[in-house]
Write a sequence for this structure.
């Protein structure tokens, strides 16, 4: 019964418990990694086998936490739906939260559909504290934790998973999952629209795995929500510097944060710059503009004439414009190549400076066209056929 | 349907937290009727079910001594579950937070509280692991009831998807220990048919009806001291048999002495006869020699007397064989025992040592052959088929008797003590 869709689970569960499970399955996002929602598997019943269904009242809940997935058993009694559930915390046999820290358990209200979800969130909080306690086995990691805790930017958005990697050798390992406080709100909307998945909340998570207690093997990894990843240019945006040996998180994390912020800034700036560029070209070339990308301002096509010779110029603006130079593709309207395409030449390097504003770029571009076109014309006549 | 486990597995705990003493092993058993009663209550409930286990815990110490002279003492803590007390509903003695209410607990247990040794829970289709609330409750119960090693029995009922197979699984935990928390629970007299004995449990029988019936009909089986009458009767028979055996021993001793006396007399007479014969032979020889001084002497005649004496000896053996006493077929004679200890030259034949009393042996005991046809004469006495190998005295006899035909007159002339042997008077008659 794995990979059960939420609807199937809701169908099989006892009717009195359905509202509770509904909020867990449909809206349940706990923890930092909200792209993965809570999953329910292994629905079973506590009634006799002759009881007609649906009467399932116990299941396994999969909760993403600090890069791991916790599998907790939740046990209700279908015949007594007003009673609070019991839990088995899977492999974490030593995790025993204090009931007084779980207000939604002490005042369990079966009539409130959010009650179970809230209780799970409280349990996760207690679990987090339990994991932090386990960090005490390594003073080095405890130091990392404490230093991060003090910083208000990171302290409150942290998930820790600590444990024995290998129960035989007793090697200690821990994973820190941090939410990076990067503002993605100004990213142009068009960039965020193209993902097939439900975008959810835009979030960047940094996962740092310590494979040993002395922090000699550290593996950082950056997770971006799909829309952000796409907006920043794909998986190449996920390259982050390696963790410096002997370094600590309180230095490294802000570094990564800054890197990401810079990238976002580039992207935002790039958008505005491109808009400016296109606007300038529009004003300079007026009727010569055939079409342009009015959403992302990434493309522009011009139809120009010089001494009765007409030609097209396609301008492709890269993501990190103006840092990166736009690509100019000259295309003849008369000549074909052997493969049946219009004869064209691509120019990537021409006089350019990122410091020019839009107007200046348009003027310079015009000048360049004038200087280059004779060359192009010759080439077209020589290599292409009409 | 029931999942059965056999054997008692000891768990060695490496010093559990909160446990005093060095109790290292725990074994647990539950009587068959209690187990089935718990299963019945559980299987009939339409939700999770819980209750208390009543019984007793005792400690057994086994000291094992081995050849290395290092004796190890093992402390075994034995938990016996005699009874159970099911709770009518869930959350009957604890609240939503898992806090145990002592008043409710007392109301449920009443005066059975002191015999509580654990509690149990039944839940269908769940893992064999203590849950969050169960652990919390267990800690509180341990404190409230004052049982340091409170056990927790977890029943789990697993059904397959199409309800074709159901399994009842049960695990006994002792959660107050850090390691080895699971204990194997045995159900006596249930399981492997290779087990021969019917184990009796130490559950005290508190049934009033049982006590009443036993009291009424007990007089037929028990006498005034509480001992079963049959036992007394058997003991009386045994005593009577013992007396008889003792009496027979006395008689045997008497007859043996008489027989020996007669044997002695016979030997003396034989000696006298032999002496007389020798004298006669001497005289005749002297006469012949005197006569032969005139004629040739022949050596053939010299061998005659020895042959005739040999023949007479052989002839003497046969009749003695059937005269053996019938009461004790193969007893070692007093003289046999003496001949082993003393030298061959001893002539004393009367056994006086008390150590030589005959060993009472039952008829047909495997150690000795049943009385059968005994060897007649020398030839058969040599045969070891009479089972002479059993006692060393008989071996001696055989080895000595084997020499009989070859023994020269000089050896035979040595005084041999009178010997009662299977081959008759073979030895005794060797004196000449």
């Amino acid at each position: 019964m794995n990979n059960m869709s939420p609807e199937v689970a809701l169908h099989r569960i006892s009717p009195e418990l359905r509202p509770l499970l509904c909020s867990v399955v449909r809206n349940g996002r706990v923890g930092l990694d909200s792209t993965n929602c809570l999953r329910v598997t292994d629905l079973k019943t506590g009634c006799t086998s002759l009881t007609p269904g649906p009467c399932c009242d116990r299941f396994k809940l999969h909760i993403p936490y600090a890069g791991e997935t916790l599998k907790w058993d939740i046990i209700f009694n279908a015949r007594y739906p007003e009673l609070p559930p019991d839990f088995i915390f899977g492999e974490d046999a030593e995790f025993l939260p204090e009931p007084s820290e779980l207000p939604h358990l002490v005042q369990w209200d079966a009539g409130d559909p959010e009650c179970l979800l809230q209780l799970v969130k409280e349990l996760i909080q207690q679990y987090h504290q339990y994991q932090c306690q386990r960090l005490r086995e390594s003073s080095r990691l405890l130091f990392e934790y404490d230093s991060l805790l003090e910083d208000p930017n990171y302290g409150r958005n942290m998930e820790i998973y600590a444990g024995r990697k290998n129960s035989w050798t007793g090697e200690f390992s821990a994973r820190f999952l941090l939410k990076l406080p990067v503002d993605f709100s100004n990213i142009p909307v068009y960039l965020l629209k193209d993902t097939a998945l439900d975008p959810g909340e835009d979030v960047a998570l940094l996962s740092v795995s310590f494979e040993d207690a002395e922090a000699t093997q550290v593996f950082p990894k950056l997770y971006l929500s799909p829309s952000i990843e796409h907006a920043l240019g794909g998986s190449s945006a996920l390259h982050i510097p390696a963790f410096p040996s002997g370094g600590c998180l309180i230095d490294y994390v802000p570094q990564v944060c800054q890197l990401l912020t810079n990238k976002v800034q580039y992207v935002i700036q790039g958008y505005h710059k491109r808009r400016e560029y296109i606007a300038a070209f529009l004003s300079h070339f007026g009727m010569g503009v055939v079409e342009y990308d009015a959403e992302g301002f990434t493309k522009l096509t011009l139809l120009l004439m010089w001494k009765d010779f007409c030609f097209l110029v396609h301008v492709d603006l890269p993501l990190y414009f103006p840092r990166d130079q736009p690509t100019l593709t000259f295309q003849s309207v008369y000549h074909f190549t052997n493969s049946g395409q219009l004869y064209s030449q691509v120019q990537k390097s021409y006089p350019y400076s990122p410091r020019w504003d839009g107007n200046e770029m348009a003027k310079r571009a015009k000048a360049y066209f004038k200087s280059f076109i004779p060359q192009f014309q010759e080439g077209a006549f020589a290599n292409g056929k009409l | 349907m029931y999942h059965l486990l056999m054997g008692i597995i000891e768990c060695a705990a490496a010093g559990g937290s909160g446990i005093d003493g060095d109790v290292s092993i725990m074994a647990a058993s539950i009587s068959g009727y209690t187990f089935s009663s718990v299963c019945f209550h559980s299987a009939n409930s339409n939700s999770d079910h819980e209750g208390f286990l009543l019984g007793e815990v005792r400690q057994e110490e086994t000291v094992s001594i081995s050849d290395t002279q290092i004796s190890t003492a093992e402390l075994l803590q034995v938990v016996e579950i005699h009874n159970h007390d099911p709770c009518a509903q869930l959350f009957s003695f604890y609240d939503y937070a898992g806090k145990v209410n002592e008043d409710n607990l007392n109301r449920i247990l009443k005066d059975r509280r002191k015999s509580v040794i654990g509690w149990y829970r039944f839940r269908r289709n769940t893992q064999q692991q203590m849950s969050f609330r169960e652990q919390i409750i267990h800690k509180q119960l341990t404190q409230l009831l004052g049982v340091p090693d409170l056990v927790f029995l977890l029943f789990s009922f697993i059904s397959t998807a199409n309800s074709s197979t159901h399994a009842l699984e049960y695990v006994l935990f002792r959660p107050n220990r850090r390691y080895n928390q699971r204990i194997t629970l045995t159900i006596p007299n249930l399981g492997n048919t290779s087990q021969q004995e019917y184990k009796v449990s130490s559950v005290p029988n508190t049934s009033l009806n049982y006590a009443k019936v036993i009291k009424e009909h007990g007089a037929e089986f028990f006498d005034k001291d509480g001992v079963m009458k049959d036992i007394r009767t058997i003991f009386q028979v045994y005593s009577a048999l013992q007396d008889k055996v003792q009496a027979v021993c006395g008689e045997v001793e008497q007859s043996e002495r008489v027989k020996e006396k007669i044997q002695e007399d016979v030997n003396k007479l034989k000696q006298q006869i032999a002496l007389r014969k020798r004298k006669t032979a001497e005289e005749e020889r002297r006469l012949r020699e005197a006569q032969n001084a005139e004629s040739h002497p022949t050596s053939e005649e010299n061998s005659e007397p020895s042959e005739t004496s040999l023949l007479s000896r052989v002839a003497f053996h046969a009749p003695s064989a059937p005269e053996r006493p019938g009461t004790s077929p193969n007893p070692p004679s007093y003289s046999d025992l003496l001949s082993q200890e003393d030298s061959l030259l001893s002539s004393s034949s009367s056994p006086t040592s008390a150590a030589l009393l005959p060993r009472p042996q039952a008829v047909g005991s495997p150690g000795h052959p049943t009385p059968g046809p005994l060897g007649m004469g020398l030839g058969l006495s040599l045969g070891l088929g009479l089972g002479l190998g059993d006692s060393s005295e008989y071996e001696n006899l055989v080895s000595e008797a084997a020499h009989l035909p070859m023994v020269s007159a000089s050896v035979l002339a040595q005084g041999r003590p009178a010997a009662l042997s299977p081959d008759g008077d073979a030895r005794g008659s060797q004196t000449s």
In short: Residues 137-189+202-268 of chain A form one domain. The interface with chain B takes residues 44-49, 51, 58, 73, 75, 77-80, 83-84, 86-89, 93, 96-97, 99-100, 102, 105-108 of chain A (CB under 8 Å).
